[in-house]
Structure formats: C-alpha cells, structure tokens
Amino acid sequence: MDALLGTLGETELAVVREVRPDRLTSLDEDELIALHTRVRRHRDKYVKQYRRQAAASIEGAGGRGKAHARNARARAKAELFENILAGVSRQLAVAAQASADALHAQRLAEEQPKPAPPPAPVTRLKPQRPTSRPNSPDLQKRRASTRAVNARRQARRDSA
Predict the structure, then answer these.
(1) d(CA 18, CA 84)
(2) Bias regions of kind Polar residues — which residues (predicted)?
C-alpha cells in the first residue's frame, strides 16, 4: 500500500488523505458531494488509463493473460480509488439520509393541525338549469344524428 501511495501525485495524495474516516465524519453533505466528485474523477482517470494500456499491450504480450501482469500499477491505482469512492459513497448516503430525515421532521412540525374554522351556515342554492333535459322531438333527432355520426366514425377507425 505504501509503495502504491508513493506512485501517486500530490493531488491524488491529497484526496487519499482527505478520506480518512475521522475527516469524513466531520464533512457535511455538500462537502461530501464535492469530495465524491473528485474521487470519481480520479477513479475514472485510472480506470481509463488501465483499460487503454491493457488493450494496447495485448498484441505485444501475446494475449490477455500475459498482458495482465504488465499493467499492475494502473490496475492497483484504479482499485484504490474504487475502494475510496465506495467509502465516500457510503458516507454520502448516511449524510443524505440524515438530511432527508431532518427535512421530513421539519415538514411534519410545520404541518401541525390548525384549528378548524367554524362551519359556514348552509344555504341551498337553486339550480341554474333544470336537472332533467327537455325531450322535444327536435332534440331527440339531433341526439340520434350525433350518435350515428360518431358510430360511423368509430366504424371507419375500427375497419382501418
């Protein structure tokens, strides 16, 4: 592990130092999101680097199995940042859940039942139009015509 840390640059070492468990617990959710982004960026860099080097060395080594050993450092760096990312993700999930719980409790506190206003006196309104429809021969014919037009339209759609 120490040999691997010796191969890291200063920015990568700063990220590794920042993810110690005692420092992670003191970070709030926004700081954890920023750290998560930085760790993911480093992880992606080393995973891409590992894959490119592995693909390039297969032909020269004579196969994937022989090329596997030549790319050990890049693979180890990718694995290191993958493990770090997993730890930061877990801590971020804990912080996000705590934040969600706090917001939920705050919302419930604000939604305490308010006293209901006294009921208003009931007044019956007269309907503005009659509830029964007039049944004149002209209206019956118009309704039948509309039903027939709609039925023909539906029949055309069904047959197409």
Answers:
(1) 10
(2) 129-138
Q: Which amino acid is at 88?
A: V
Per-domain residue ranges for the chain? 2-110
Dihedral pair phi/psi, residue 90, rounded to 5°: -65, -45
> HSE (CB half, 13 Å, CA atoms) of 24?
22
35 and 88 in contact (C-beta within 8 Å)?
yes
User: Would you write out the chain's pLDDT as a tens digit for each of its 160 residues?
Assistant: 667 777 777 888 888 888 888 888 888 889 999 999 999 999 999 889 888 888 887 777 776 666 666 677 888 888 889 999 999 999 999 999 999 999 999 888 888 777 778 888 878 777 777 667 678 888 889 999 999 999 999 999 999 7
Kindly report the pTM of this predicted structure.
0.59
